[in-house]
Amino acid sequence: MSELVTGEAVALELRPARLPSRALAILLDLVVAMTVYIGVSIGLVAATASLDEAAQVALSLAAFLLLLVGGPIAVETLSHGRSLGKMACGLRVVRDDGGPIRFRHALVRGALGVIEILMTFGVVACIASLVSARGRRLGDVFAGTLVVRERVPVGQTRFIPPPPPWLAGRFAELDLSAVPDGLWLAVRQYLTRMQQLDPQVSWAMAEQLAADLAARTGTPAPQGIPPAAYLAAVAQERQAREARRAFAGRAPSESGAPGAYGPPQTPGAPYGPGAPHGYAPPVPQEPAPLSAPYQPGLAAPAGTYPPPAPVEQPPAAAPATSPATSPAAERPSTGFVPPA
Taking the model in full, what pTM does it have? Predict the structure, then answer.
């Protein structure tokens, strides 16, 4: 088992791919590439029959470099380490620290793959993979990459504990370009195993890693923040940047990263020496004193308002009189009697 992070910047425990699965993936990629190359070569021969021999050789060499060398490099760069053969076998190429590969990693792997796979029919790659402890060929050694298996049981996954909520977004402006991959791997391994260590040993390791990380970033760690919480906040910030780079243009729901690209924080979870993550809470602030109540005859203090003046109620309307008791009923009779 090797504790790494996938191309989606999710911390997982993954198994390095061994020779049989890698050989099958490379064989599938070669079958697809050779099929395309043969088809393109036949088309070029038919289209360049009128050209001289030197031009035909130049076009054939360009097609070879474009399809058998440039094609795998472009596919691995755009798919973040997953070619057709690796997708079929459940493999992925990642960096030594577990992050997604970039163009320079794919370029080094593709350039050395021409020598150890195409020119030697895979003999050099097989020997190097058998000798390596993690099954890496020469292209992986020089590029700083590793081929891992993505299809692992869900119960074996282990997430990096999230930082306290009061540290969310605090290191968004931190420069992380000078931090080496080895230090990131050490930080990830510590955060996933700090609950298994002795408290004193865990605190000493966190202080050392925090000092190394602050020296690489050029910004000292803020005062009053536990070193484990500082490491978790910076690691989550880097994972968020890797996820935004890998899933540029997608909605957050498509990337599979919940919320701030990490496991959801349990509401009301305690933080302290005996807390699940070993972080300390921020210093509470005293509430502001209440303002003095309003008294009639005195000026209202700042922040208070006088009570509203009583509103005079209009006098009640006189009840309506019935026709029998109205003044018209008391008028003198005219001798006329209305019909029944």
Answer: 0.46
